[in-house]
Specification:
Number of helices of chain A: 12
Largest sheet of chain B: 9 strands, mixed
Order of helices and strands of chain A: EHEHEHEHHHEEEEHHEHHHHEE
Low-confidence stretches of chain A: none
Shape of chain A: globular
Strand content of chain A: 15-25%
Structural class of chain A: alpha/beta
Radius of gyration of chain A: 19 Å
Distance between the termini of chain B: 36 Å
Radius of gyration of chain B: 23 Å
Oligomer: heterodimer
Helix content of chain B: 10-25%
Strand content of chain B: 25-35%
Largest interface: A-B, 44 and 49 residues
Number of strands of chain B: 22
Chain lengths: 398, 472
C-alpha cells in the first residue's frame, strides 16, 4: 500500500546559476555551473552520482547533461512536463531513492531561451504549453493571452473594476520585484512602483509588461540521498515532506463549468502534497511559498488555491501586506518568476532552492533571511488556465 | 416556374471614407465611403456569409448544387465553391462549380442555375457571388471599389421571384483585365471604354431583351443594372429614360463597386423592397452583357427576415486610418518578423475536417453535453465514442471571458481571444473579429463567422471566429 514519502529523502546540496539573459553561456555551461555548485555545497563529486535526471522543455535528450558533465555511462533521463519540469526532476530522483535503486543522485533543471532573437517562449506561435498544436484551432494564442482571460473573469466575478483589478495585480509585482532586488542571483534586480506597473505597456489586456515574468536563462541543481545517509555527507540538509502533481484533463475551454477563477490542478496538487506532509492548516504550518507567477494573476489565484487566502479575497491580504517578505505568509521571497526569472526547466528546482536557503539560514543577506522557516512550499503550473499540469514540492527541517 | 426562392447578402463591417483617402493622398475627397473586407476576409468567407443569410429559414439539406462566382477567387487552382459548401455545412452530395473571369459572372451563374433546375439536374441551386478586388493605392479606382457578396437559391418550388426571360451578348472588347502576373487590374482610358464597352454593350443587351419579349422600359417596377462608377450609372439611367422611382440605387458612396457582386447585391436590395407583382429588369456587364426579366410572386413575403443589404449597410465601423487599410491589404513590406511563421498541416486539417470547416462539435449521447473540439471520451461523463455531430456555426453565444493580446503575430492588434458560451450549452474558444476593442466585454452577445486564420504552408487556412452580433 502506498505511503507518505515524508522525510524519506534529503537534499544534501543545491546549486543555482545567476539567472538572466546569459548571452555568453549555453545550455552546457548552465548544467555544469549549477551541478558543480551543488557538488561543492554537498561535498560530493561527479563520481559519487549513480543516476541523474535533467529537466528542460527546449533542450533535447538526456545527453544534454551527460555530455557536458562527461558522466560515466550512468542512467540519465530527460524529463519534460512544461513548467512543472523542474519539480518532476526532483520527484523522479526522490522516488528512485525511496525504491533504493540508487544511493546518491543528481537532479538538474535548465533552460536556454535567449538564443532565439525574440521575447516569449520559442514555441509560442506554433504551440504553447500543454496545448496540442493545431493549424487553426487556438492557432497563434499565447501564454499572456490565455492567462489574461482569467484576470478578466476574476475582476468580473469578484466585482473589481479594471482599475482596481490591475492595481491589485500591480501590488503583487511590486512585492516580487522588491524581493528579487534583494536577491543577488535574480534576473531583474530592480524595484518598481505601483504606478510604473500600472502605466507599463500592455501585453495582453489586462496584463501589462510588469505583470509578466522575464524570459530568462538559468539552471538549478540538487544532490539527493536517503535521509538516513545524509549525515555521511553534511550536517546541513533539508528533507522532502511531500509532492503533489496534478495533470488536468484540460477541458477548461470545453466544459462550461470551468470558472476561470481557480486552478483546479493546483488545488488538487496541494491536497496531495499536504496529505503527504501531514499538513492540516497550511496557513499556520507553511512558513513560505515560492509559487508560479509567470503572470501576476497566476500568483493571485494561487494564493487562494493553496488555502493561504480566502477565495475572492486575496486583494485584502495583499493590501494588508500579509504576503510580503515581512508579512505573516511571505510569497516569492526569492523574487518569483517575475523578478528572479523563469528558465522553464530550472524554475521548480530554483523554487526548492529558495526554501533550502531560507531553512538553512543561507539567504546571503539579513534583509532577505526569514526567521525559523520550518516548511517551504514550491509550486509550478504548466500550460494555461483550464489545462494545467501543477506540481508542488514541500521541503522542511529534517 | 423557375426563379429565386431565397436571397441573402453580406457586406463587411469596415468602411473606408473618401475623406480618409484624401487625407492619405491629397485631393478634395467626398462624403462617400466604401465597404472594405477585414484583413481576415476574402471572396470565400464573404460568400459563406451571404449563403448563410440566404439559407435563413431553410433546411440546409435541400441544397444540391452550389455555384461560386467571383473575379477574385482566393485560389487560381483549387475550387472555392467546395470550401463555401463545406463551411455552409451542405454535406458532400453537392455539385459545386466556380465561375470566374468577368464582372458578369454573377448573372452568368444565375443563368447556369436556372438551366440546371430546368434540366432537372438540380432541385435547389445555392448561388454565391462575392468579390474583393484590390484597387491600386492612390488610383482612381481606390475610392470606388468595394467588397461584398450576395447569394440566391434557384429552384422551381416556392419561387419568390420568377426569372421570366433573358438575353445575352458576348464581346471580346478589352476594357478591364488582369494577367496572372499583375497585382492590380489594368484598364484603358475611360472615355473610350465606357462608350464602346459598358454603355454600348449594356444598352444592346437591354434592347435585345425588350425586343425578344416585346416589353418596354415602362413595364418595369425597378431596373437593376451594373455600372463601373456612380456617374456612369446616372448617365445610363438617363439614356434609358427611366423614371426616378424605377432606378435601383447602385449604392455608390455607401458600398462601392463590388465587381461581380454589385448587380446581384443591387438585386438583393431591390428584393428587400419588392412586392408581389413587381417586374424587375436586371442587367449586368462584363465581356458582353446579360439582361433578364424577373417577376416577383407573393412568396416574397416568406423571405423578409434577412440581413440582406439594408441591415448590413447600417451595421458598420470606420476603418481608423488608411495606414490600417495598408496593413489589412498587405500593401507595404514591414520589418521581417524573427518569430516563427505560421504553419499548417494538411493531414491535421483533413482529420479534423468536420470540426474546422463546418464547425461541428460533438454532443454526448449519454449525458447530452455539447463539446468542441469533438472529444472521443466525453469531458463530462467519460462515455467513449458515443456522440453525434452538431453544427455550432449558427449558434448564438455570449462572452464568458476574454483577453486582448497586443503582442500576437497579428495584422490588426490587439488580437482578441474569447471564451464563448453557446446558447443551449457548449463552449467555443476562438479569436474575435470585426470588433471595437473599447466595447468588448463579458456577457457580450456574439455570433460566429468563417474567416481566414493565416496562410501558413502557403495554403489559406480557414476557421471560425466570434464577432459582436452584427444585428441584435
Amino acid at each position: 500500500m502506498a505511503e507518505s514519502i515524508k522525510d524519506k529523502v534529503a537534499i544534501i546540496g543545491m546549486g543555482c546559476t545567476q539567472f538572466g539573459e546569459l548571452w555568453d553561456k549555453d545550455g552546457y555551461d548552465l548544467v555544469i555551473d549549477s551541478s558543480y555548485d551543488a557538488f561543492e555545497d554537498a561535498g560530493v563529486g561527479p563520481k559519487d552520482i549513480q543516476a541523474a535526471w535533467v529537466g528542460t522543455i527546449m533542450g533535447s535528450t538526456a545527453t544534454q547533461l551527460s555530455a557536458p558533465m562527461k558522466l560515466d555511462y550512468i542512467p540519465v533521463s530527460r524529463m519534460e512536463n512544461v513548467c512543472a519540469t523542474g519539480m518532476e526532476v526532483m520527484r523522479a530522483a526522490t522516488f528512485a531513492l525511496i525504491a533504493k535503486a540508487y544511493d546518491v543522485v543528481l537532479a538538474v533543471g535548465y533552460e536556454k531561451l535567449k538564443d532565439t532573437g525574440y521575447g516569449g517562449l520559442p514555441m509560442a506561435v506554433q504551440a504553447s504549453g500543454s496545448e496540442k498544436w493545431h493549424p487553426v484551432i487556438g492557432s497563434g494564442d499565447t501564454a499572456p493571452a490565455r492567462y489574461a482571460m482569467a484576470a478578466t473573469r476574476y475582476f468580473h466575478k469578484f466585482g473589481l473594476s479594471p482599475e482596481e483589478g490591475k492595481r491589485t495585480l500591480a501590488k503583487i509585482s511590486v512585492k516580487s520585484h522588491y524581493n528579487g532586488f534583494l536577491n543577488p542571483r535574480a534576473h531583474l534586480r530592480m524595484q518598481v512602483t505601483e504606478e510604473q506597473v500600472m502605466k507599463a505597456p500592455m501585453i495582453a489586456w489586462p496584463l501589462g509588461l510588469f505583470d509578466a515574468c522575464g524570459v530568462t536563462d538559468g539552471a538549478a541543481a540538487a544532490i539527493l540521498c536517503r535521509t538516513e545517509d545524509a549525515r555521511k555527507f553534511t550536517d546541513e540538509y533539508v528533507t522532502i515532506k511531500g509532492f503533489g502533481l496534478s495533470t488536468g484533463p484540460g477541458m477548461g475551454k470545453v466544459r462550461t463549468d470551468y470558472d476561470y477563477v481557480h486552478w483546479e490542478e493546483t488545488v488538487r496538487a496541494a491536497q496531495m502534497a499536504y496529505a503527504d506532509a501531514g499538513i492540516k492548516d497550511p496557513k499556520k504550518e507553511i512558513s513560505m511559498c515560492e509559487v508560479h507567477d509567470c503572470f501576476s494573476v497566476a500568483e493571485l489565484i494561487t494564493y487562494e488555491d493553496l488555502g493561504m487566502c480566502e477565495k475572492g479575497k486575496a486583494k485584502h491580504d495583499i493590501e494588508a501586506g500579509e504576503l510580503a517578505l515581512t508579512g505573516a505568509h511571505p510569497f516569492n521571497v526569492g523574487g518569483g518568476l517575475k523578478s528572479f526569472g523563469h528558465p522553464v526547466g530550472a524554475s521548480g528546482i530554483r523554487e526548492v532552492f529558495e526554501g533550502y536557503q531560507e531553512i538553512l539560514g543561507k539567504a546571503q543577506s539579513p534583509e532577505r533571511q526569514l526567521k525559523d522557516v520550518k516548511l517551504a512550499l514550491g509550486h509550478n503550473q504548466g500550460g494555461n488556465p483550464g489545462r494545467f499540469i501543477s506540481s508542488i514540492c514541500i521541503v522542511g527541517q529534517p | 416556374m423557375i426563379g429565386i426562392k431565397s436571397f441573402g447578402a453580406y457586406i463587411p463591417v469596415y468602411r473606408l471614407s473618401e475623406a480618409e483617402l484624401a487625407r492619405a493622398w491629397g485631393g478634395r475627397g467626398g462624403k462617400g465611403e466604401r465597404a472594405v473586407a477585414n484583413y481576415d476576409e476574402d471572396s470565400i468567407t464573404m460568400a459563406v456569409e451571404a449563403a448563410v443569410d440566404c439559407l435563413t429559414g431553410f433546411d440546409r439539406g435541400i441544397v444540391d448544387s452550389l455555384l461560386f462566382a467571383s473575379t477574385t477567387p482566393p485560389y487560381t487552382e483549387k475550387m472555392s465553391a467546395s470550401i463555401v459548401s463545406g463551411a455552409t455545412d451542405l454535406g458532400n452530395e453537392v455539385n459545386t462549380m466556380d465561375l470566374t473571369g468577368s464582372t458578369r459572372v454573377g448573372t452568368t451563374a444565375l443563368k447556369v442555375a436556372c438551366d440546371a433546375v430546368k434540366s432537372g439536374s438540380a432541385k435547389n441551386v445555392l448561388l454565391t457571388v462575392a468579390d474583393c478586388r484590390l484597387a491600386p493605392p492612390a488610383s482612381e479606382s481606390e475610392p470606388v471599389f468595394g467588397d461584398g457578396a450576395a447569394s440566391f437559391i434557384i429552384s422551381d418550388e416556392d419561387v419568390a421571384v420568377e426569372i421570366v426571360d433573358s438575353y445575352s451578348i458576348s464581346s471580346d472588347f478589352v476594357d478591364v483585365w488582369k494577367r496572372a502576373e499583375d497585382s492590380y487590374l489594368r484598364t484603358w482610358e475611360d472615355r473610350f471604354i465606357l462608350q464602346y464597352g459598358y454603355t454600348e454593350k449594356l444598352m444592346a443587351a437591354i434592347k435585345g431583351l425588350l425586343k425578344k419579349t416585346g416589353s418596354s422600359m415602362g413595364d418595369f417596377t425597378k431596373v437593376v443594372f451594373y455600372s463601373p462608377d456612380g456617374r456612369s450609372h446616372g448617365r445610363l439611367a438617363k439614356s434609358l429614360k427611366l423614371e426616378e422611382g424605377q432606378v435601383q440605387s447602385p449604392m455608390y458612396g455607401a458600398l462601392g463597386n463590388t465587381g461581380a457582386a454589385l448587380a446581384p447585391m443591387m438585386l438583393a436590395a431591390a428584393l428587400e423592397e419588392a412586392k408581389a407583382g413587381d417586374k424587375i429588369l436586371l442587367a449586368n456587364y462584363g465581356d458582353g452583357a446579360d439582361a433578364m426579366i424577373l417577376q416577383v410572386t407573393d412568396q416574397i413575403e416568406k423571405i423578409r427576415d434577412r440581413r440582406g443589404i439594408k441591415k448590413h449597410l447600417e451595421s458598420k465601423m470606420q476603418i481608423a486610418n488608411y495606414e490600417k487599410y495598408v496593413r489589412f491589404r498587405n500593401l507595404m513590406q514591414g520589418e521581417a518578423d524573427r518569430r516563427p511563421q505560421y504553419m499548417s498541416s494538411l493531414p491535421m486539417m483533413w482529420r479534423d475536417r468536420n470540426q474546422v470547416i463546418p464547425l461541428h462539435g460533438g454532443r454526448c449521447r449519454n449525458c447530452g453535453q455539447l463539446q468542441f473540439p469533438i472529444q472521443r471520451v466525453c469531458a463530462y461523463c467519460q462515455s467513449k465514442d458515443d456522440y453525434e455531430e452538431v453544427r455550432i456555426s449558427d449558434k448564438k453565444a455570449s462572452v464568458f471571458t476574454f483577453s486582448m493580446d497586443e503582442r500576437a503575430v497579428e495584422v490588426d492588434p490587439p488580437r482578441v481571444w474569447t471564451i464563448c458560451d453557446l446558447d443551449g450549452g457548449g463552449r467555443f474558444y476562438c479569436q474575435m473579429t470585426d470588433r471595437d476593442t473599447s466595447t468588448v466585454n463579458i456577457d457580450m452577445e456574439v455570433e460566429f463567422t468563417f474567416r481566414k486564420i493565416h496562410d501558413g504552408a502557403g495554403v489559406h487556412n480557414y476557421f471560425w471566429k466570434s464577432r459582436p452580433a452584427r444585428v441584435s
